Each structure stands twice: as structure tokens, then as C-alpha cells.
Amino acid sequence: MLPRDGAASTKSRFATGAGLAALGRRYGALAALALLLLYNLLFTRNFLSTQTLYVNLTQVATIVIVAVGMTLVVATGGIDLSVGSLMAIAGALAPLIFLSQAPALSNPAIAIPLAFVLPVLVTAALGLFNGVLVTSYRIQPIIATLVLYIAGRGIAQVMTNGYLQSFKNPAFQSIGLGRPLGIPVQVILMLIVVAVAAWAVRSTVFGRYVLAVGGNEAAARLAGAPVSSVKRSVYVISGALAGIAGLIVIAINSASDANLVGQNMELDAIAAVAVGGTPLTGGRALVIGTLVGALIIQLIRFTLISNGVPYAAAQIINAAIILGAVYIQRP
Amino acid sequence: MLTQPSTMPSPWRASAQWLGRNGALVVLVALVIFGAGRYDGFLGVYNITELLRYNAMFGLLALGMTFVIMTGGIDLSVGAVAVLASVVAAQLSYLGAFPALLGAVLAGAAVGLLNGAVIAWLGIPPFITTLAALLGARGLALILANNAAVSVDTGAGFASIGLDGLLGAPYPVLILFGAYLAGWVLQEHTPFGRHVLAVGGNEDATRLMGLPVRRIKLGVYGLSGGLAGLAGVLLAALTFTGLPTEGVGWELQAIAAVVVGGTLLTGGMGSVSSTLVGTLLLGLIFNLLNFENGRGSISLTAYWQSVIRGGFLLLVVLLQSRAARRAP
Amino acid sequence: MPSSQPLLQMERIVKRFPGVKALAEARLSVGRGEVHALVGENGAGKSTLIKILTGVYQRDSGSITLDGRPVAFLSPQQAQAGGVSTIYQEVNLVPLRSVAENIFLGREPRRYGILLDRRRMQHESAALLAGMGLQIDVTLPLGAYPIAVQQMVAVARAISTRSQLVVMDEPTSSLDEREVARLFEVIRRLKADGVSVIFVSHRFDELYTICDRVTIMRDGHTIDERPMAQLSRLELVSKMLGRELGALQRAHTTGFAAAERDAAELLVEGRSLRRGRALRDVSLSVRAGEIVGLGGLLGSGRTETARVLFGADKPEGGELLLDGKPARLRNPRAAVRVGIGFCSEDRKAEGIIPQLSVRENLTLAALPGLARLGVVSRERQQALVDRFIKRLGIRTTGPEQQIRELSGGNQQKVLLARWLCLNPRLLILDEPTRGIDVGARAEIQRLIDELAAAGLGVLMISSELEELTEGCDRVVVLRDGRSVAELPRAQLNEAALVAAIANAGRPPEEDANATP
Fold it and tell me: CATH number for the domain including A221?
């Protein structure tokens, strides 16, 4: 006996109880961010200085860039644990190109653009590898991306023999140290990535397919969506963004250490996605939410540290936030 | 009337299935033979005991992870819990070996039980729950250690866990094998062990058949935490410190060991012995690389071990996905 | 001395779910050592009744008496402990565990208190199965054996738990004839041991072979209960479908105009389609401008046929022709491209993307056409949505409302619109008016009519007799995965349809009394 027009009564239910929860879900993160900003404005000295702003934004920029890719992957119901290792690979490859003594690469007009493009292509290809494991071999995303999590960093280490590559190459490092119009370039990149991704999710066929695949894969397939292709694509995007983030990190540090680049990035990215409101079960891609989530986490760390709370306690609070954010969003 | 299984395996499929289940052992034996033939001292007492002593920690983590994965879950917190336990052990070391050991194991078990309770009763997925536990345990370790390294008090006998042994076998090795033996008995010969596999094989059916699924889950996560605690004790004993920044990525190594050994990540099938094989196999790769570099002919850096480990994981997972698709 | 008191007595069972009354005054009475059939169509309430009996749900009111004592099982575990076992259609054991373990899971024999007594477990399992006529290696994983054997193991588990009552839910749907015969042997042995069986099935031959009595349910009520021998096949089906024997076609009740239509060119044709157990040999065709109905009972293979025609599943045998030429549809995307649409019967699982809006859901299949260079044109999308909301009378607060907030009928309209806005040539509808109120039903039926008149070819699966008799130009009847009859409009009336479904083509007069 299937409900006949049963949802008529549930409509009124939605208006009250579920409506509040939905409101919470939509604006909760933003409200939390606003509260944090307010607190700091009032109680933290020098909060509005450009120095503070610069420090916070640059720290958060690479996380956001990676987390946007993670948002798309999560939206299809998957996860990408390999992003940190992919960052390390990109970070290891780029200096090998622009520091290379090979005659073909001696011309900076060739070497520098190549040092930007090739590492990103490589990480994108590795993302495709992830995607194929998930779609063609039906391996669970957590395990499929675990392979590169383990092996990827090793590849980066092998490429550089574990050595720190230290360099001073203003042309390349512009991606991390440049300040067009006074704004750090990675912040601009971050904003571009967020804007493009948010727009794509909203307005392109691909973006809508991503949401459909994550929301109800069977229905999406029956409606003609190219499910496997969509899934592979999000892993490629995640890989490419991780590559870009890797380049930024080494540019900022003027050095590339394959052991350290991107360490823990997968956890930071997942945390930003979760706190930002994107459910880990898939079907929604709140790109702006991820930006807000990353800012919240960053701001909490900053607030705690500048108020003398030890890093350790900040970690515990971080954990509680993530748990709480996920618990609230339970279906 | 006699009925035979519908999947009367052809010789190819039978060997593929056998390989999938025992492949790790075959590779392990092959590597051991290779190493014995190629390197001097490979089969020597020193090398073997050092290999086992170092991998004892990972072995314990992988043992706990086996039970968790058999129920279809995952425990990302074991590395952090081990580190937390090492800090606890170091701080309690002035009381002697046994109290420190007990305290550390209890601390680990407490975290594990908390994980289990949240997963089984609050319904939050294991991935997220244990991820949060990872962060929380690390933070707690830093707080307890006051953001520094805690030195082990060598005067009260704690250090003997790492230094001494019985009948020529170092304590860590004995602990490792003892734990695996107990784990094997638990898994093969007690109802609890079979129930764990049933939960992973078909949780709904298991619940319908009357088993206390929530309590079983609580048990495996508690076990995982306790074993991580024990691993922490070994860590403190071997390094004479409780270092809160250690242990990064150990949970993923443990997962890899379990999967390489042949236990299905989706749960319901696997064994303790295969995890031991997986752990030893992954540990052996590092060992072989050292020897190979010692010969000087190639210089394969230690970094290759991650690549090779990842490669093994990939191979095993591909084989498992094949096998899963052919299953009736 | 066998007691004449029934083993199980369920009286006046009522069960309500939010918004709907699933069971109203349902009744079930099973004697000792009796094999009792429980029949009813989709939505009749039989699965709800069984779930109440076995502790999955709790009843709102009514009484259940087992072996003379009142019982109220709060969980499946309690039901099992109380002597009621269930053999599910999907077996619901643990395939990765061994046969012996499955039989004894939760009640393993022990040695020294905590250690497993493997040998005894295997010995007793083997003995149990041997007593059922089955000699297999009980140490192998359950999943290595075919479903028929797995069911036997489930029965063995029921026996070993000393059940008095075994509920079998569609046990034969995956079995071949030999395996069915073996199952029936086992059921007879159970009967001889005084164990009662509730046999839920829609396969009449089997019901008449093995069952003693039958309870018929419809719309949440128990409408009849009597010995199988006193009920003819035709009577049985008529009661299941809610028609009194001999009743003539009722007055016009649907939105279909029931007018003659000119059928044009052949759109799709399936010849001897075969796939798995559910689809054995189905042939049918649909022309432009006609509505072809696909009738048959639950499990007859209608949805499976539809999925094959849409490219959602690949046929294992037979041919598919599009526009007269052999074709192979690799996936739904390909079908959409050649102008076929498919509205699944399960809105929730295969239809709506719950968290997306009405606009998103409506235009999902049409997205490629609404976009330029991959970017969706908002104006065109909006115009499309507005047009169809108006055309189908979809009641929503606006195109941005989340689809899961709409009523079932309006959700179905959105899904219908999803396909209609593609201007398909062939539309396959699987239970298009299921779970929809009367008013919306008529609207949808009228719409389908108009579309057919405009040249759309429609294949409509329906369990509602009047939809088939009033709306279709032809009805193809399926039974057990085979197309067994085709009724053209001239011969299409309810009596003939019911007869075709029940007898696979035998004229009603010949089937006076059921022969077991």
C-alpha cells in the first residue's frame, strides 16, 4: 500500500522542523565564520592588519585549492586520499625541469612554462588513474586512492632521491610569491578556482551531472548521464588542482622537500569539505561552503594560537568540530 | 543425492583463487629464498630478530585492523593511538614495566571503545569517527607530553621490554607472536571470531539471525585500540621516548598490510595469519632494499619501498576486484 | 493427539505508516502441520503482515496467538527464539561463511566454554542436511552453492532452531523445476514432522501443488480464506485483482478516451528476448501512435522487458529491432539519443534525484540539448520547465522547490516531463500511476492519451486492469517471463484479461475446479 499523496502532510512538516535544520545547514557555516571574525575583531590585537590577513590567507589558499577538487570528488560519493602525494610529485618535478642542465631546457622561455604545465599534466594523469580504478575496476575510492597515497610520495622521493631541492627562480616562484595589485597570487588563484568551480557546478551540464551521479546514480544513469565519464573527470580535476597546489607550496618555500610537501593535506581538505557542509555521502557540492569551511578551521587555529591555546588542544577541538559537522548533516 | 558447488572451478580459476588467497605467502617465501641466496647474513639471527623487532609495532596495528576490517569497517586512528599510548607508557615508566604497559594498553582500549560506541550507537561512519579520533588522540598526546618528547625512565625496568628477551627471542618478537597466536585462536576457534566475519559478510542477515551486532563492533574497535596501545608500549620501549609527533601514516601502512595479506576490505573474509604474512612482506621489502644497497651494485634508495608497497597494494586490490566479480 | 486449535492465529491486525494505512483488519490463521499459501498483489499488505509476524514491525492493534499463547515479537531475534523462522527470497544468510557456520550462527556448539567445537558443528550440519536429502560439503562457503541449496541450508537452520512455523517468502523465484521439486519434498517432510509452513508466492501451479489452504489479501484486508481445493484458478486471480468472478467491464473509470487510434510505423520490436531467470522468451512490438499494454502479475518479467528495450540491461538472447533494423543499445544514453524514454516504476530508487530541485530533475535528460559548449542556457531551461509545469499541472511552490517535498503524483509528473521534454518517439512507462491519487491519475492518463494521438508510441506496464483495458490498443500478457497472449482492442475486456493472466490462454469455461 503505497502512500497516496502522503507527502501532502509532510510538506507542512518540512516547513517547520526540517526547514530549520535546512537553514542551519545552509547558513550555519557562514554564521560560524561571521562569529569568529567578530570575535577576533573585538578581542585580537592587530587582527585587521595586512600582515595577519596575508598570513592567514596564504596558509589557507593551497588548502582551498585542493579542497575544491575534493569537494567535486566527494559530491560523486567518492574520496581522494592521494592529493598530498600528488602535491609532492608536482613539487618534485617542477624544479627538475627549471633547474635542469639539459640543453633543450636551457631556454627559460621553454623551461618555465613547461615547469608549470608538465607537473599539472602528470598529476592530472595520476588522477585519471584513480578514476579508472574506481570506475572500470569498481574499487572503493578509499582504497583506490590509497595506492597513490602510499606510492605517490615514494615516487616523488625517488625522483629527487629524498634531497631537498633548493632554488631561487623568480619567474617560477611568481606563482607563490607574486603579488599582483598587492594581493598574493595564490589567493587570486584560490578565488579563481573557487569561482570557476562554483559556476561550473551551477551552470554547466557537467556540474549538474556530478550532482545527479552523487545524488542517485541509478536514476542518473537511466536519465542518460555518462556516469563513468563524470566520475573519472572529478578525479582528474582533483589531481590537477593538487598539482597546482604543490607548485604554489614549493614556490613559497623556495624549496621542494618530497618528504614534506603536502603532508596531511588530504585530512585538511576533507575537514574543510565536511565543515563547509558538503555531505560525504555525495549529491551536493558546496564549493563556497568549502571555502568557508577552510576559513573557519584556519581562523579557529589562529584564534586559539593567538590566545595562547596550545596546538595540541587545537587539534582536539578540530576533531570535535569535524565530528560535530558530520553529525549535524546526517541524512 | 550429492550436490557439488555450482562453481566447479576450472584449473585456471582454481589457481587464481588460491593465488588470491595465498599469493602473499607465495611472494613472501619467494622473497625470503631470493634474499637468502643473494645476501650474506640475510637468514642470520641478527637480521631476523631485528626485522621482527622493528615490525612488531606494525604487526600489532595490523592485527587490530584485521578485526575491524573483517566487520567491514576501518580504523584510521591506530597510529595516533599508538603514539598516545607511547607517551602514556613513557610517563608511567617510572612505576615499572608492567604498570606502564597496562596503563598504555588501557588508554588505547579506551579510545577504541569510544570509537566503537560512536560507530555502533550513533551511526557515524567509521571513516569519519576514527579520523576525528586520530586528531583527538594526537592532540591529547601533545598535551600529555607538554609538546615535547617524554623520556622513558630507564631505572624502573621498563626499558627491558625493548632490550631483553626470553630464550633468545626479544620481548617485542614474543609479544608479536603471542598476540597473533591469541588473535588466531580468537578468529578461528571462538564464536566471537566467526561472528566478526559474519557481520562483515552480511550485517543485516547477521542481525536478523539474532547476533548482537553493536556489541561485536564495540569489541573489534576496542581490540584495535588495545593493540594500538600495545604497539605504543613497544614504540616507547624501542626508542626510549614517548614522541607525540611519531606514527604519521601508520594506520595506512596497517591497512595496506591487511589488504596485501588477502583480507577483503569490504569485510567478511580474511584471516589473522594472512595479515602477519602481509606485514612481514611489506617489512621485508625495506629489509631487502637495505641489503641490496649494501651490495653497492644498485642504489635503490629506501624511497623505493613506498613505491613497491603501493604497487603490491594495487596488484592485490586488482586481483580482489576480479575475484569479487566472478563470485557466484 | 493433534490439537484442532490452529498453530497461528492473527486477528484484526491493523498497521499504519505515516500517511497510509497498510493493514486494516488483516487476518491469518495457520493450522498445525499445514502448508498455507498467502497471496496478494503489490500493495496488498502481505509482506507487511509477514513482517509483523516475524518481528520486523510492530502491529498497531489486533492479536497474535502462537500455539495457544499470545505473542508480540519485538524483533526478528525474538521471533526466531519464539519458534518462527523466515526463509527470505534473497536467502539472507552470510554467503562468505561456511554452510555449517550459517546453520549454527549464534548457537555454536562449544568446547571448554569458549572454544568452538568445529567437529560437532560440521557433523550435526551434515546430518541435518542429509535428513533433508542433501549431501554436501558443509565446510565450503555458502555462496559457492546455487540458490536452491542455499535455501535448503536456510531451512536446515530453521529446523535446527526447532521452529514450529517456517515462513517462505517467494522461495521458488530463482529455482528450476528440479530444485522446486526438491524443495517441495523438504516441505512435505516438515509437514510430516508437524511443522507448519506459510508459503508466499504468486506461482499458481506451485500453490496448487503444495499448499493446503490459502489466504487472499487485497488493499490491506484479508478478503478470503479457504482450502485450495475449493478455489479455482480463475477465482483465485479474480479475487487477487479485486474482481468478482463473472463481473463485467465496469463503467469508464480512467482518463483514457478508449477511442480507436491509427497505428503507424513500427518503432521497436523485441523477438524472443531473454535475460537471466526473469526474462525467458518475450516478443512484442510497439508502433507510433499506439499504446501497448504489458500485463501480468508480479514477477512475470514486465520491468525486465522494459529495461532491455531501453538499453538499461543487455539481453542474453533474442533480437531487438529499432525502426525495423537490428540494433544494440549499449546504455540508456544511447536509447535517449534514438528517441526512447523510460519512466521507472520505483520513483525513489531510480527516478528522482532527491536533493535537487524540480527544475533540475525535470531537465536532467534534456541537459545536453539545452546547453551550448557545455554551459546550460538558463533561459531555455526555465522556459522548458515553465511550459511543462503548466502543461502537466504540476503542483509546486516553484521550479526551485526540492523535488522530495512534492507529493507522489507531482513527482511522477516531473519524471514524466523529464522524458516528454525530449520529444521522444517511444515512451516506456512502468506503473506510471502507482501511488498517485485519483485526480492526478486521470490527468496523467489523459496526457498519455493525447501524446499517443499526436504520434507517440507508448509501452505501458500497469497492474491496474482498467488502465490496460481502457487505455491500450493492445495488451501483451506476460507470465513467468514469457509472452503468452496478446489481446487486441476488440477482445480487450477485464474478464478476458484476467483469464489470460491466470490461465495463460485457456478459455475460462474449461477451468471449473483446480486440479492439484
Answer: 1.10.3470
Q: Which domain holds residue A315?
A: 29-328
Report the Cα A75 to chain-centroid distance in Å: 12
> Quick one: cell of A182?
598587492
Residues of chain C neighbouring A280 (CB-CB closer than 8 A): none
Q: Let me know: does B289 contact B278? Beta carbons within 8 Å.
A: no
Chain A residues whose CB is inside 8 A of the B301 CB are 157-158, 161-162
- Give B81-104 as a 3 state SS string: HHHHHHHHHHHHHHHCHHHHHHHH
Structurally, chain A folds into a number of domains equal to 1
pLDDT digits (tens, 9 = 90+) for A139-161: 889 889 989 998 998 899 888 88
Which letter does DSSP use for residue A182 in this model? G
Mean pLDDT of C203-232: 88
* Residue C138 near residue C99, CB atoms below 8 Å: yes
Tell me the average pLDDT of chain A.
84
Cβ–Cβ under 8 Å, residues B313 and B285: no
pLDDT at res. A64: 96
Grid cell in block for residue C86: 523466515
The pairing of strands C115-116 and C69-70 is unpaired
Q: Do C105 and B195 touch (CB under 8 A)?
A: yes
Cell reading at C213: 489452504
Whole-structure pTM value:
0.80
- In chain A the beta strands, taken as DSSP E runs, fall at 165-166, 255-256
Q: Does a structural domain hold residue A4?
A: no
Domain assignment present for A23 = no
Q: Are A293 and A321 in contact (CB under 8 A)?
A: no
Contact C94, C142 (CB under 8 A): yes
Task: For cell 553529525, name the residue.
Answer: A327
Mutant choice from B6, B69, B194 vs C, greatest count of C C-beta within 10 A: B194
Query: Tell me: the pLDDT tens digits for C127-158?
Result: 999 988 888 999 999 988 888 888 889 989 98
For B284, C40, C44, C299, the CA distances from C220, given in Å and listed in that order, are 66, 10, 5, 20
Which of these, A12, A251, A10, A4, lies nearest to A115 by C-alpha position?
A251
